[in-house]
Amino acid sequence: MPVKDYIRERFFPHIWCAGCGHGTVLNGLIRAVEKLGISKNDIVMVSGIGCSSRVSGYLDFHTLHTLHGRALAFAAGVKLGRPDLNVIVPMGDGDALAIGGNHFIHAARRNIDVTALIMNNRIYGMTGGQYSPLSGRGILATTAPFSNIDQSFDVVELATAAGATFVARATTYHVQETIEIIQEAILHKGFSVVEIMSQCPTYFGRKNRQGDAVAMLKRMREIVLPIGAKAKHGDPEIIERGIFVRKDRPEYCAEYDDIIRRAMKRK
Amino acid sequence: MKGTVRFVQGNEACVEGALYAGLKFFAGYPITPSTEIAEHLSLRLPEIGGKFIQMEDEIASMCAIIGASLTGCKVMTATSGPGFSLMQEALGYAIMTEIPCVIVNVQRGGPSTGIPTHVSQGDVNQARWGTHGDHSIVALTASNHQDVFAMTVEAFNISETYRTPVVLLLDEVVGHMRERLVIPEAGEIPIVERLKTSVREGVDYHPYLPREDGRLPMSDFGGVHRDNVTGLYHDMWGFPSDDPSVVHGLIRHLIDKIENQTNYLTRYKEVGVEDADCLLISYGSSARSARHVVENRRRRGERYGLLELQTLWPFPHELVRSKCANARYIIVVEMNTGQVCQTVRLAVDRPERVFLANRIDGEFITPTDIQGMLHLIQGKGL
Amino acid sequence: MERSRFVFSGSGGQGVITAAIILGEAAVLYENLNAVQTQVYGAAARGGATRSDLIISDSEIWFPKVVQPNVLVCLTQEAYNKYSPIIRPGGLLIVDAHHVQIGRRVDAVQKELPIYQTVIDKIGEPIVFNVCMLGAVTALTGVVQPVSIMKALKARVRKDLLGVNRQALDLGLELGGKAA
After folding, report:
1. What is the CATH number of the domain that holds A202?
2. Domain count, chain B
3. In a domain? residue B201
4. Cβ–Cβ < 8 Å for A172, A205
5. Which residues of A touch B60 (CB under 8 A)?
6. Which residue among B205, B277, C85, C123 is the one 20 to 30 A from B166 at the CA level?
7. Is residue B91 a part of any domain in this protein?
8. What interhelical angle do B339-347 and B317-324 show, nearest 10?
9. Which part of the chain is the Thiamine pyrophosphate enzyme TPP-binding domain (chain A) (predicted)?
10. Complex ipTM, two decimals?
């Protein structure tokens, strides 16, 4: 199917700034779904609030644009209601890990079969450039004029510790890899987390003198390297990308189906 | 009434009513005095192929039931004051997106953690105005288990008919006490099923374009229509819009669909109202003490009446005004500082005749408390 | 019938709440009477003084709590000290002789019954203490038929524990019958 069959043209042009990485993620997501050949009727996209959350409206799936941070809680209801559907949840870094942090770790703990895409641009873009839990120490933001003293989460480590059974990191520079990882994440039976590093030239780039979108992408190419690179080069600046976790653990909806079988027998 | 007789808590009467109405999905978080609802449903729902989930908090619980409702299930959550506060955000979302769902609040004393194991009716106005922005809401109450059952069924029926969240305001006394419940046989109480769209695949479906009768047929997630649901102001396709006419039209629709139906949504009971010289107005468990007083006084030949409100929101102004027209005194009996009393004063022609008999110390209001207020009023020589 | 207002009191774990529920079930489910049961919630339910109220009547019950019980059961000294003053003058006050030392200044018919001792001597397990107490209450008040209590027990307790419950109920009926 051509890419344009997956989008709602009525919604365009999109609201993202020129050079924003989120359009690349949208494109990657469409390609992944297209390669997997999943029917549009079988996908529910649940999103929260922020720049990232607008992904859902642009796509011609069943789409649920919810509340800031709460997308995974809504997604749990959708998935339990219809376990046969593919539930994909695009989130921003603040959305997923600040206001939605509790829902995130509990979704991971339950291992419910939902695909969480965390579009990490390290800033609150929609509200104009405040620091997020992924900005990191030393970053400038409109609410950190003297530089940020908050430490950041490592999404991969957090998701792994919370029990996610598929954990990966990708970037908007490494587009082909991102498409493949999203495909694998959707196919994975269980809670899958894909952190996609995305550039925000408007706020993060400008505030932190990282140049335009092209310069930010080039920087991603230089410092985001395949798993194992950190040990090899011993450079603390390096961020690793790839699939970190892929394991089997009982999935929540399947487990609940078993509860139903037991309850019905008992009755 | 034919059916199965049980001796159960009000919370279990609510569970039975919900299952009778077709509940298929419950998400909740433990909180006194509502926890028994979650406990019973964790056992009962999987027996009928339904689903129960204990979420990480009440915020998530409210979100999860909305998500499940969109897949076509009848859904409910249950909580008490602190949890109801956390649910306000997603309650507003359900109002805005017109998602059928039922929220049970078994009230305890607040504010804050308050007095968890004691009774209160302090959340009446929170049910009305707890979530931000202009909106309307339906809130029902009940004073005994047969009515808890019936009002729970009503809550689902109203929720499905008007595509709106419905709040069921129970309280600790009704929730925890045990008394007779007759579970009616299937079919005895009518059940409103979800109205699904008849628009076929490939034909443009407008999820937010009301039919002539005002109802909005739904299409489930996973069905042939892929619509958008958003908490932003949206057009008839569910797509965000800041067009002033769209914004104005939607907020008027959300409010009018409830307020213009007040007569259809009003549920109440009355005893001796026609000839009442002294009319008591009450609801929930405090209506039991009010009824006790009214029965005793009437037995002595005194002209007392009781108007028990079962629909608190939309407030039945017309009903209250007409029922109060001939009474010399109107006493509102409730366990808060006068949340319904204030509203009654706005509804009646002579607000100076309206008095409050209340209790706000966590203890259940007794007939003696009400008698005390009556003496005070009569001592004033009114 | 006369409206019966019971207060069952004791300490958490003695089964006073369950006893009130069983009596309520017997009345509502098997004798077509009305009953309303309430209890004090909170830390008391997990040890400490606990109380459960039960009203049984053939007419409708509006006010659900008991202000002045005409039947008061106290299974601990603490409960006796706390609740004996609220009994309706001339009411029936049943205490367990092992746990409670009664006072003289109570305007009620006080019955000191060796409920606990009997259960320990004849059954050896205190778990059916509350059912034995119910037997005594039933014999002394006649509020429901013993067979209705047995039906309520059958619907509620595990099959393998039914025998010992029946035995406890019979012992209680005997104790109450003797004391009447």
Report:
1. 3.40.50.970
2. 2
3. no
4. no
5. 70, 73, 76, 102-103, 106
6. B205
7. yes
8. 70
9. 49-196
10. 0.97
